[in-house]
Backbone:
């Protein structure tokens, strides 16, 4: 991949991430404070664990991309005690490292980077993986919200709680 190709792809992916982060924040904020121990099935994470995984793994993805190195992912540890603390961590930690990712040069974006000995791809491809990861876990959390009988925000279209407005008329 040429640096120019990587830069063009990155511009598209950054627009995508801008939208995905805003939507993810809405879903994180919708988790009721008294439902952090809710989980789906025996193998499911609690809502707090899933929320914390979303924040910490997004941070790890961003740091790996920004540093052009995925050799170290920080252990997630136990989630904070409140939904507000988890949301505050998202607000505090994700934007600054996202800005570092957005400041990568075209040459850096095209740099092949090994992902945990799984594969080596231009780092810009991992920006797309990051978006997919956000979407994947946000989908899980929105399912939790519905099962909790909590408010489910609009994600890509209306929800039962935030329906689309009436269609425009000519």
Residues:
């Amino acid at each position: 991949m040429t640096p120019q190709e990587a830069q063009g792809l990155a511009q598209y992916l950054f627009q995508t991430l801008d939208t995905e982060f805003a939507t993810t924040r809405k879903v994180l904020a919708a988790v009721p404070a008294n439902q952090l121990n809710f989980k789906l099935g025996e193998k499911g994470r609690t809502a707090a664990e899933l929320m914390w995984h979303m924040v910490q793994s997004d941070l790890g993805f961003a740091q790996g991309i920004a540093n052009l190195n995925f050799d170290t992912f920080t252990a997630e540890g136990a989630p904070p005690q409140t939904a507000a603390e988890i949301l505050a961590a998202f607000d505090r930690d994700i934007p600054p490292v996202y800005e570092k990712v957005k400041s990568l040069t075209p040459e850096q974006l095209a740099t092949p980077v090994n992902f945990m000995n799984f594969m080596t791809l231009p780092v810009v491809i991992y920006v797309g993986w990051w978006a997919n990861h956000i979407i994947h876990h946000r989908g899980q959390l929105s399912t939790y919200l519905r099962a909790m009988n909590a408010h489910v925000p609009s994600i890509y279209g209306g929800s039962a709680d935030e329906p689309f407005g009436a269609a425009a008329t000519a």
